[in-house]
Amino acid sequence: MTIPFNKPFIIGDELKYIEEAVKSGKISGDGLFTKKCQNFFEEKYSFPKVLLTTSCTDALEMAAILCDIKEGDEVIVPSYTFVSSANAFALRGAKIVFVDSYSDNPNIDPREIEKHITPKTKVIVPVHYAGVACDMEAIMNLAKQHDIFVVEDAAQAIDSYYTFADGTKKALGSIGHFAAFSFHETKNIIAGEGGMLVVNDEKYFERAEIIREKGTNRSAFFRGEVNKYGWVDLGSSFLPSEIISAFLYAQLENLDKIQSKRIDIWNRYMNGLNDLMEKGDIKLPIIPNYSTNNAHMFYMVCRSYEERTALIKYLKEKDILSVFHYLSLNKSDFFLKNNLEIDIPNSDNFTDSLLRLPFYYELTEKEQNLIIEEIKVFFDA
Amino acid sequence: MTIPFNKPFIIGDELKYIEEAVKSGKISGDGLFTKKCQNFFEEKYSFPKVLLTTSCTDALEMAAILCDIKEGDEVIVPSYTFVSSANAFALRGAKIVFVDSYSDNPNIDPREIEKHITPKTKVIVPVHYAGVACDMEAIMNLAKQHDIFVVEDAAQAIDSYYTFADGTKKALGSIGHFAAFSFHETKNIIAGEGGMLVVNDEKYFERAEIIREKGTNRSAFFRGEVNKYGWVDLGSSFLPSEIISAFLYAQLENLDKIQSKRIDIWNRYMNGLNDLMEKGDIKLPIIPNYSTNNAHMFYMVCRSYEERTALIKYLKEKDILSVFHYLSLNKSDFFLKNNLEIDIPNSDNFTDSLLRLPFYYELTEKEQNLIIEEIKVFFDA
Predict the structure, then answer these.
(1) What does the record list as coiled-coil region(s) (chains A, B) (predicted)?
(2) Which of A93, A98, A281, B155 is 20 to 30 A distant from B124 in Cα terms?
(3) Over the stretch A327-345, which tens digit does the pLDDT of each residue have?
């Protein structure tokens, strides 16, 4: 029996709610279950406004339109991230400025951000890697000082928090101007593909709704605020089907159960692999004091590309599927078409050496023990 | 009991297939059911390449990227259409050139297209209104003559065909360079929200896949054609969740059953309202000889805005929900921000006078007879 890297799951009333949605007479976007999901997030995490989208990518694209990105604007993005963090802004004509991570944490380093701010910088995109918070206080201070938007790429960061120096604790996604979350099948809470935009500044609420509704003021029309609705702005169809929202809502009803299980899984990896870390064979995740741990992912960092490749191969022979993650975007073909090659060493190190272990709701203790055991066997050899 | 304008439905194994998708271990995009749907369409309609998307809007946006729309390019679109037909190109910086419909058919009039072609025209977007074919032979001839792309907005046009002068019959969506279809809950085949792009020219297959996969060559990687995948182009996340594709596939298995029922509904309206047409009270749809009828919608055209408003009100009092459709896009706030007001009379007439009657799979003969009866009572009064 292979232990996959990821495994989607049904945990509650997913199918029942889909049937209910159909029977309610509306399965296009913004029906009952979309509203239930949005309300859930707004209440639980004090997000001022939540709009479900078809993907985290789409939520980032909405943010890019809301930031009014124009040809030549600069957007600061970590090099170690998923393509969408950059693509969403590149699509609007932005010049992407890639910066480095910390050496011991894949998150973007605010000191590196500061070095790359110019008068053209319009947005900073902190990506909360593995659900671990970026240093949002430092980033927000930079943004304020230079009058720059902050779009949190919170794809992996559901149910995680940042604590400010004064002790204030805020949910990731509620700190920047906008934030984008994912419900892709690999995330803690899933809908196969899916996402949401969080809008933290009230002055963008109305335009966010319009952009999401194909550039029309349809939402205001249904609330009776305007007499007819029409084309008033750029926009796209960012609304998920109610089939997606119904599935998602059943997952949300079980959020605490899912999170508690995932934290157990995470801790079991951490404890199980601690010896190897102490021996210096591997590095394990660091959770800074200002961040909580949402147990989105468990990764380890090998000493080299070759070692990681050998470990992946070894585990695969044992029917355990472990996977590497991002490739430094500054070395991508698309970036190098228009830019010179630059050196972003920490990102390159994570590109070469970071390994993600199987992690999903139904992963059993027995399977996990086997994975830990095999990793130890590999390093003992 | 109210007769709604539309009503989504479960017809077969929708829920079973969703459960199967989850159990298969993959519900993110491009899983088993997405492939089944794509194969179904490619085989049934001889579409060279089909890519499911999260909406018809998204498929149009993919087409706009594939056409390499740049700031200032002109795109010819009927004024009587959904905002997405224009928005998808406006998002890429195009200047939208709105043209008129025929006087007796909401489809774009090729003579009007010809008048508006300039050296900057890059794309023509024929919208097959109500699933009735635009005059594709005339449009393709114009496009060829001027080296212009044709993107069929086939949102409503599933299972409909065009016959060329030489007798060749081709499915709508297979004639232009690209075509976009919708599976929105109001369409013949539904997934709540959903769509697909058809790519008819082989030379765009690879780039279409890349754009759909966030600008990465991931599809080629999974086919073993490249060693690793990375960021190679602009792109977005256009893939639907397998939850959507599983739902859709169950509908596709019942396509013939759905179509046969819809054609009965359509004919019943046509026959039932024929008297009123002959008396000159209303106009009814015209299906040109070159087009089939896919029974997507039943509309009638009143003599005035006032008469239509009164009829909607009358039917609503009888618990029958009928609805008007598009508002001429050349009169939208967004267009008028950057353009002078122009006169597009036939589009304005359909804006004011076209009325859509309740039309869905589960509409009963009894309900339909009631609707027809009440319309007659209204006009007799």
Answers:
(1) none
(2) A93
(3) 999 999 999 998 999 999 9
